[in-house]
Amino acid sequence: MRRRAEGLYDGEIADGWDIGGNANGGYAIALAARAMADAVGRPPLSLTAHYLSPGRPGPVEIDVDVLRSGRRMATVAATMRSPEADVLALLGTFADQTPGGPSAIDGTPPELPPIDECVLAAPPLESGFHHRVRSSLRPVDAGFRAGRPSGSAEIHGWFELPDDQPIDAFGLLMATDAFAPVVFNRSEFPVGWSPTLELTVHVRGVPAPGPLRCRFFSRFIENGMFDESGEIWDSAGALVAHSRQLALVPRG
Amino acid sequence: MRRRAEGLYDGEIADGWDIGGNANGGYAIALAARAMADAVGRPPLSLTAHYLSPGRPGPVEIDVDVLRSGRRMATVAATMRSPEADVLALLGTFADQTPGGPSAIDGTPPELPPIDECVLAAPPLESGFHHRVRSSLRPVDAGFRAGRPSGSAEIHGWFELPDDQPIDAFGLLMATDAFAPVVFNRSEFPVGWSPTLELTVHVRGVPAPGPLRCRFFSRFIENGMFDESGEIWDSAGALVAHSRQLALVPRG
To answer: What is the distance in angstroms between the Cα of B17 and the nearest Cα belonging to chain A?
Structure first.
């Protein structure tokens, strides 16, 4: 990601960040967010992306519009474009985390088996997105891949970057879209294309080192759509990201 | 709201839609959403707003940018400006609801006392936002107004428009921001200004006639911020809107 001019950045959807030829959504969002963050000198705090068309490996341009830049918070809009089409529209508030103050957390990190007893989202030698990040599913949530959906619209698992790279706010954006759609675990739906319309991520903290515990679930499947909420917890037990998306149920 | 030119609308934050002089956020969002919907001929499906500055009664201009307009969905960005300052930045997907398909709902409408046993958010003869919409709180959730917070970061209540006006997608946008911040019911926080940074609403259905049952709650209060999730259920028991916001805890 390179700044070409005020508000204009060049990026590259790298080979190997795709799933079946389409760039992973979280990866594309993280790439755009880096340009937005560069323009205001702050990481993402709340970021919404709407998907306009699938991203393909190759060059992209990110058009960044700083709408407001205050002492603590900045509001930024952006569009990511490939030579063929607009890929993403984004709107977010960017700010550093300010730790402290009263805390009240209703929830706990998901209980997970050790990583080596979980099921890697893709075999380690395969190329593509799941070679670049490691998402490891709780075995009960991975049965959909063998035609045995759990029956519950949820997926729990671990998220890591290769070589123990630390995970920052941009890594958190990737984590929120690094697992399969939770509706794959409901037998009403085929395991097929399930396009996300919109994803919003609240970055709630700076992760402590170590793999992240992730919980994704849907509560409202109706009228051809479903919500998917995500909670990302760090190794110290803190909630560090909270995501929600609206997606279309797969039609097979 | 009147179209002045392609992509440019004139609106008016009417007197009486304010809370202490600032326009209610949901009202301002609904006003902007009407302009966005007019530009693409479809109601909001998923809409995100970031607050740039408080809206005051008076004229506003809404700048609408149609990013993509497909057969079924359209993606639209907008900015609402007053003569003094930018008020709101918005990004959304607009589409008609398409009822049908498999449905799986994990949740039920909140159990509420009859409306006349609930506590109106404002006395009926007062002017201002709560005179134009009727939000009626479950009594246990209204104690914060008398210095007796319930201790639980939640508020349940009824939402209606005056004179039994039907509630459409724009009414749903208003409903998601028509109650007090749920952290008022936690004794750690004063009842004071609690600015919303970002609100995202998923419109999930067309409400059946009658008052709406609303549930708002926060699960993650930390680092000076809190999430607030909202569920809006219609009189037939269907979930018709699902909101989430990120806000700053009040500092007194």
So the answer is: 25
